[in-house]
Amino acid sequence: MQDTARAAVIHAPHDLRIEAVPVPDAGAGEVRVRVRAGGICGSDLHYFHDGGFGTVRIREPMVLGHEIAGVVETVGAGVTGLHPGDLVAVNPSLPCGACRFCLAGMANHCLDMRFYGSAMRFPHVQGGFREVLVCRAVQAVRAEMPPSRAAFAEPLAVCLHAVRQAGPLLGARVLVTGAGPIGALAVLAARHAGARQIVATDLLDAPLALVGRLGADATHNLRAEPDALDRYGADKGVFDAVLECSGSGAALAGAIPAARPGAVIVQVGIGGAQTPVPLNAVVAKEITLRGTFRFDAEFALAVDVLARGAIDIAPLLTATLPLDRAGEAFALASDRARAMKVQLGF
């Protein structure tokens, strides 16, 4: 059994190195997983380009990555339900299970959360872009599917949680602003929840073309056509729900006139600065503005949905590059005109 494994370690902006990191044996209640696929997320790109986001900064070398899947190599004492050879999607969240939010069924708000590839705490929580990972058995969810598909469980869980925040969507008209990976998955999750009409907006044609193929009924490039949403604003708006996935204040403000009175707006994307909100319009239209943060039970749901093929994420995977080409993979993932989701293969 090897004692070290190669990993993608960020040291500073644009200083991504492939280095050997230690790999312990699986202890009691743990499993050792040989990682097969890892998706590059927007937060990974923030660490890569900027060294962090907001007040969160890299203060020590950190293994990136939290969208991962692999094969169980060994299981520790007391582990049941998992065996060597099982393909698993790895939940990057490890809540404490004892704080008031965990006990209230809100584990995504855990006061002592350990989330893979995160510099929010120090020492940082090392991530999953590594050849071998040891995790708690509860984080490894059996996934009867290829690892490239299983690695989509984490971002899909984010969108399933966001859709839950929007309330029942059966027969609803939904606006999705921002057509990046999360926006594209939000389109799929909204349709899975029963939305009858989905409109998507972005500033680039390439991602809009893809979400159109995924099933969005209409797409609008707001850079080319800034007034495109005006047609939905007649008679106080038409959309029952808005999933704002760009993190742009302009996108949020532009969506409010198109939302009907009583609509729910779920803020999924996170911007780098304080975002002004047109409160007069929110009040006058009795709009509910909700945040959404990560996920909890939705991770297992995402694995199930993907395994059954109820949501097809295959069109989102642009390319898979080997770990040795991680720098190239991050560059490609940063180009929204060419890429939707890029994965590392191990």
Give a brief description.
This protein has ten helices and 20 strands.
Give the key terms:
346 residues; alpha/beta; Rossmann fold; 6-stranded parallel sheet; 20 strands; 30% strand; globular
Poorly predicted runs of 5 or more residues: none
Strand content: 25-35%
Mean pLDDT: 96
Q: Note the total helix count.
A: 10
Structurally, the number of domains stands at 2
CATH class of the largest domain: Alpha Beta
Portion of residues within helices: 10-25%
Determine the N-to-C terminus distance.
Answer: 17 Å
Radius of gyration: 20 Å
Largest sheet: 7 strands, mixed
CATH architecture of the largest domain: Alpha-Beta Complex
Q: What are the secondary-structure elements, in order, as H or E?
A: EEEHEEEEEEHEEEHHEHEHEEHEHEHEHE
**Class inferred from helices and paired strands:** alpha/beta
The strand count comes to 20
Describe what you observe in this structure.
The chain is an alpha/beta fold. It has 2 domains: 4-152 and 313-345, Quinone Oxidoreductase, Chain A, domain 1 (Alpha-Beta Complex), CATH 3.90.180; 156-291, 3-Layer(aba) Sandwich (Rossmann fold). It is built from 10 helices and 20 strands. It has helices at residues 42-50, 100-103, 147-150, 153-166, 181-192, 205-214, 249-255, 279-284, 298-308, 326-333, and strands at 4-12, 15-22, 30-39, 52-53, 56-57, 62-63, 67-75, 87-90, 93-94, 114-115, 132-136, 140-142, 173-177, 197-202, 218-221, 239-244, 259-267, 288-291, 317-322, 341-345. Strands 3, 7, 8, 11, 12, 19 and 20 form a 7-stranded mixed sheet that branches. Helix 4 crosses helix 9 (298-308) and helix 5 packs parallel to helix 6. The model has no long low-confidence stretch (mean pLDDT 96).
